[in-house]
Amino acid sequence: MPNLDDIMKMAQEAQAELQRAQDNLDTIEIEGVSGGGMVRIRATAKGRILGVTLDDSLMQMSEKAMCEDLIAAAINDARIKADVAAGIEMQKVTSGMALPPGFKMPF
Predict the structure, then answer these.
(1) pLDDT tens-place string over residues 59-87
(2) Which residues have CB under 8 Å from 82's CB, separation 6+?
(3) Which of 22, 47, 58, 85 is geometrically suited to a Cys-Cys bond with 67, CB 3.0 to 4.6 A?
(4) Does domain 26-94 have CATH number 3.30.1310.10?
(5) Are residues 67 and 54 in contact, defined by beta-carbon separation less than 8 angstroms?
């Protein structure tokens, strides 16, 4: 059974790994899409919006309400994909850690 010093060292190493993984999330890009591709939102897995692309057909005043709905839907799609990408990255980090039974991540 590991002693307290070993557990603390493992916890510090795990915390450092998690921080590196969190920092890496801002380099992973995902794309949220709605309206059959008429609205595209590029974002990072950390949730930072990088860009919005709108189909030219949405640039009519009569399409304003639909455009707003599609932008919101694309942002939500990007957020879901960012959460999935973040979960995958965090799983990569935590799967190789030799943690004591019952030890929960993140801290």
Answers:
(1) 888 888 998 899 999 999 998 998 898 88
(2) 30, 43, 44, 45, 46, 47
(3) 58
(4) yes
(5) yes
